[in-house]
Amino acid sequence: MERKPQNRIIYTIAATVLLTICIQVYWNIKNYGTNKLQVLNDVQTALDNSVDFYYTDLAKTTVKTIDTQNEIFNEVGNNSEVQVMVDSIIKSTINEAKDSIQNSTDADSPPGSHSITRTFGITPGLPPEDRNNVEALATKIVISLINGEIDFKKFSTDLTTELTKRGFDFKYVITHSRNGKVLAHYGNTSEKKLPLSVQSQSAYLPEGTILKLQFPDITSLALQKGFLSILLSFLLSASIIASLLYLLRVINRQKQVAEIKNDFMSNISHELKTPITISLSANEAILRFNKDADTTRTEKFIDISNQQLHKLNLIVEKILETAVLDTDQLTIKKEKTDLVKLLRDIVEKQQMNTPKKIDFSSTYNAIDAHIDRFHFENVVANVIENAIKYGGDIIEVALSQTSYTVSITIADNGTPIEKGQREKIFDKFYRIPKKNIHDTKGFGIGLYYAREIMQKHLGNLEIVPDLNKTIFKITMPWLIK
């Protein structure tokens, strides 16, 4: 994958993530505003319903006390201001039913007509439906105007009930005023954190009267109301962003795999071609340049050819072993083995192939463990070969034993492996890049093979962090057969 297409993908994903976040933030802010307005409307409705219920209940109680002796309307008559307001409102109501009133007679009036009918000038012969409506309106107005004071104890009970129905539970202050003059307060007026307020719009309140409800900030209430939508928005945004980031990770991983694959193909092609070319050259020399049948020369060329064919066979075996590991068809055949003797033999073989110094040490003269001798020997040999190829001049192999495990450390005094590369080197075909130049032969399958084999032994192969050395550590349980 080229760099430019990859950059375009990264920019596209970044823009999509940013756009998703912006859209969700805008939508949540807008949704919060709607929820906040809804909460205010709910509080307003609760206040208005409480006022309506309070005065309706008061009207029911008061109507029972009205009798034919004009008791309550004598009180109205003593207040000229109230009488004028009542006459004005009722006059408009009566005019709407004028046609019915003009055709009515006293004969239709029930015996003992009420004083409320006489006070508001309602003709006794008014049809029952119109009569009831007008009487209800008149009673409502009279009750509202006569009772200027409010029983806050009773009213607060109704208000608290209405608020509770709507899921509200907060402290509040009620202010009752008329014509700009505060008549009364109810609640803890020392509360300083009551920034919001609503005024009752109830038709029961007399003209010029204001009933204001103050209450705390409703940010938390608005958030609670929209919690589900906010949660869904967050989950949607998180899933989109996670999917895009995962896609980016997959793309980068595929890019790395492609690079590793190309590197492996290049290396394996070179490694396969070299022994084949040498073998062909040796055979050609025997055929063309050995006409005198020189036995010594023939044996020399045959030996060269055999060495290269043996090398070619080892390369193919490594590739096949790796393929078998991927299919989980590799069978581990464990047998009791002296690890001290095995490791000493491996070190001696490796020492013959390198001028570097390889030291071996053990805390015991003999340590028996149940292992697959063939594969375990390959594991240790691969790690030592890795130290010979890429490590320092001194290689130390140490064997130790605890009550349950056996540990083998292979350390060299070369440059330590960078932290970001410590896990990658165990990936199949992976080789630490050196500015696209690999000056040491290899396929990137040795450490992958070694870790897989150790895991099949219920052990592990890992790098021990160290500032001065590169240390590989092999651990496994030695008692398990």
From TrEMBL:
Biased segments, Polar residues type: 101-120
Enzyme kind, highest EC tier: transferase
Catalytic activity: ATP + protein L-histidine = ADP + protein N-phospho-L-histidine
A matching Pfam family: HATPase_c
EC number(s) from the headed UniProt entry: 2.7.13.3
CDD domains named among the record's database cross-references: HATPase, HisKA
Cellular component GO terms held in the UniProt record: plasma membrane
Residue ranges annotated for the Histidine kinase domain, each copy included: 267-480
Keywords: Kinase, Membrane, Phosphoprotein, Transferase, Transmembrane, Transmembrane helix, Two-component regulatory system
Annotated region (Disordered), positions in chain: 101-128
GO biological process: cellular response to phosphate starvation
Residues passing through the membrane, by range: 9-27, 226-248
Signal peptide residues on this chain, from the entry's feature table: none
Molecular-function GO term, any one: phosphorelay sensor kinase activity
Name of the protein in its database record: histidine kinase
Organism encoding this protein: Flavobacterium cerinum
